[in-house]
Amino acid sequence: MAQLPRRIREFLGRIPLLAYLLGFLAATGIESILGKTLGLLIGLGGVPAFFGITDSLSRLVLDKGLGGVLLSLPSVFIYFVLALVYDVLIYILPVFIVAGLLSRPVRWFVSTLPEWLTGFIHMVTLFLSLWTWGGLVEYRLLVVMYIGVNIIMTTSLNLINGYMGEFSCGHAGFMAVGAYVSSVLTVWLFTQDDVFGAPVLRAGWSVILFPLILVVGGIAAAIMGLLVAFPSFKTRGDYLAIVTISVNFIIKSAIENIEKIGGPRGFMGMKGVLRTMESVLNVPWLLIWTFIGVLVTLVVIHNFVSSTKGKGVVAIREDEIAAELMSVNTRHTKILAFTISSFFAGIAGGLFAHVLGYINPGTFTIFKSTESLVMVYLGGMGSISGSVLSAGIFTLAMEALRPLEVWKKVLIWLLLILLMMFRREGIMGGKELTDFVSLERLGLRRPVKEVKGYAPAAD
Amino acid sequence: MTLAFFFQQLLNAVQLGSIYALIALGYTLVYGVLRLINFAHGDIFMAGAFIGYFVATLLVGVGIGWPWGFILTLLFSMILTALLGVGIERVAYRPLRTAPRLSVVVTALGVGLLLEHIALGAFGASRRNLPPLLPETWMQSVEINIMGEYLSFTWLKVLIIVISLLLMIILQVIVRRTKAGMAMRAISYDKFAVPLMGVPMDRIIAITFILGPSLAAAAGVMYATQYPVIEPYMGLLVGWQAFIAAVVGGIGDIRGAMVGGFILGFVQIFVVALGQFPALSFLSSTYRDLVAYALLLIILVVKPTGIFGVATRQKV
């Protein structure tokens, strides 16, 4: 195990990130041209949605008892092996061939550009590959956006649970506030609705105002975040956890009692908003905004925890009284941390509502909060790259295991318990990806030029 | 508000509150000894109700009726649920004895959700009714005349209150008068020095996990007799309310759990009851949870350790 980090480091450092991204883009391109033919040829009956995991599991017969499960295992296995062949041919071979071939040119290319442009090119490549990958099967696009929403949720919760060391388990409440506020605003402004009547603004505004409305939802959630922030001055640990749970329940219960926005029946009409936006310009608006939302969240939270204020947050985790003595304004810092965290939960909620097209108070219960918690602990507390990684893995696993129905949840909670027993620090163990492999090796930053008399730290 | 109406609601409140108190005691016992919020406790209550359901179905099928059917159901579900509780402690919590407290809390949350979804997978989401363990007449409402007003109640409610009070008294005796109880109190006082005095920590913790879940199982069986609904999510609904009760009273304090249970029962029943008056008609039953949680929030802000809780002083 001790060798593992070094191995990963060497492996990741060999080829720049952009080459992998281009490889993935090439793979998705090949899939969109050849995928269906290959799928039919092998006998998969089309393009498998999630690398064949979902499709093979859906062959499992669950409703005929244990015998049914055992009898259906061979067909699951055969399908899985076939899907594996497909995955190797479509994804793994192209990714590694293209990445290997492009490794040197990309490294040279990246070193000639300014860093902001390099970052931008990475983002565009990632976006394009996600778009082509998701464009092939509609369901994939949905899952990609779920992953985005979950990344925002996990990273923002990590600020409280990981960096500040508090135990917040009511994050879904803030998500609910953001979801409802932004959905009500967009539906009121841009669509014909039974409750709110004709659209208030012309369709063209929807494209411009959509991100602003998301921000308004985030601000509303941040204000609710104060409900937790103020008690946190006096209360810590278990009792603050209870405060967060009760805030979650209060928000859910309050929404249930507002008849105008559907009460317990829920609220819909966000699909209409999307149609309005697409009538102006037909691009995948939600994918774009989810992508941008994730980027902004990551940048803001990363910069916040690296700033002086953010160091104060970590100081509170280590020892609140000592932090206070070292001139950290703990009250101010706590308010800031809670509002930032719930602001992004609100943004995630707004995106989630528009991706799903329908929300109801039952979506934002303690279950949802616990899911975010699982993702934070899976990725590792106090690690942003861990959060991103675990949100991706967890969301994909949730969707891929969907055919298992209820037992999927059993597996997930079992995983959480086992995780706590055997690897408490999560996947990344409080480290960032850049602790294993430097930005220079990834090709995200230009290599430091050797200056005479100065030895750059070995990566 | 007329007197009869008041007494009727009072009876309802005491009955609901005693069930809350029984579950809250489980939260508080474990917290007192382990300093762990056992989030799985609500689902242990659910498991108790399910075990009660299976035992009762078996007994009624064999032909054992009132009163032995009821007593045996109560007894067996308490024993089996206690075994479940001890098992959970042994498998999930004991390996984490030295881990940071947060990990244990997360584990507890996970165990609760695991139980819930195992029940959902194994028994389905459909609601089940407990087979009739009590004679019909116990379920029917009886009316007595108080100053021209009729007060209606069922003997079942009285039975629930009596059994709950009995169990609470037994618990008090165990905690106050036995050696094991003394050890429990000692451990909650000082976790590090007491094992050095020769007190077997593991055994005392196991006893705690016998007491809490068996009380929860009793509450589960009685809840299922009063409200004939057994489903995997009942732990989520009732368990969390009981948890609030424990916190309101001051988690870790046994009197607190009882008082908190009754307070919450009163608040919830009277929020609904007051809604029957025209002037307060905005208080519909859907506000029950909202008021309960708002109460919790206010208590935590004003007195963060609950009514009976002692403020923990931080050493500088």
Concise structural overview:
Chain A is mainly alpha-helical and 459 residues long.
Folded structure, characterized:
- The complex is a heterodimer of chains A (459) and B (316).
- Chain A is mostly helical.
- Chain A has two domains: 8-127, no CATH class; 138-436, ABC transporter involved in vitamin B12 uptake, BtuC (Orthogonal Bundle).
- In chain A, 74% of the residues lie in helices and 1% in strands.
- Chain A has helices spanning 4-14, 17-42, 53-57, 65-112, 115-136, 138-163, 171-190, 203-229, 231-234, 238-256, 270-280, 285-306, 308-318, 320-325, 330-356, 366-379, 384-400, 406-422, 433-436, 439-442; strands spanning 267-268, 358-359.
- Chain A has a two-stranded antiparallel sheet.
- In chain A, 45% of the residues are buried.
- Chain B has 316 residues and is mostly helical.
- Chain B has twelve helices and two strands, in the order αααααββααααααα.
- A two-stranded antiparallel sheet of chain B has the order 1-2.
- In chain B, a hairpin with a 2-residue loop joins strand 1 (141-146) and strand 2 (149-154).
- The longest helix of chain B is centred in the first third of the chain and has 32 residues, at 3-34.
- At the A-B interface, helix 10, helix 16 and helix 18 of A face helix 4, helix 10 and helix 12 of B.
Can you give keywords for this protein?
heterodimer, A: 459 residues, mainly alpha, ABC transporter involved in vitamin B12 uptake, BtuC, two-stranded antiparallel ribbon, 2 strands, B: 316 residues, 12 helices, globular
Helix content bin of chain A:
over 70%
- Major pleated sheet of chain A: 2 strands, antiparallel
- Which strand-content bin applies to the residues of chain A? under 5%
Distance between the termini of chain A: 20 Å
What is the subunit organization of this protein?
Answer: heterodimer
User: Number of folding domains of chain A?
Assistant: 2
> Whole-number average pLDDT of chain B?
84
- Give the helix level of chain B as a range of percent: over 70%
| Known CATH architecture of the largest domain in chain A | Orthogonal Bundle
Distance between the termini of chain B: 53 Å
Lateral arrangement of strands in the main beta sheet of chain A: 1-2
**Unreliable sequence segments of chain B:** none
CATH topology value of the largest domain in chain A:
ABC transporter involved in vitamin B12 uptake, BtuC
Number of beta-strand segments of chain B? 2
Rg of chain A over CA atoms, rounded to whole Å, is 23 Å
> What is the name of the CATH class of the largest domain in chain A?
Mainly Alpha
CA-based shape of chain A:
globular
Summarize the biggest pleated sheet of chain B.
2 strands, antiparallel
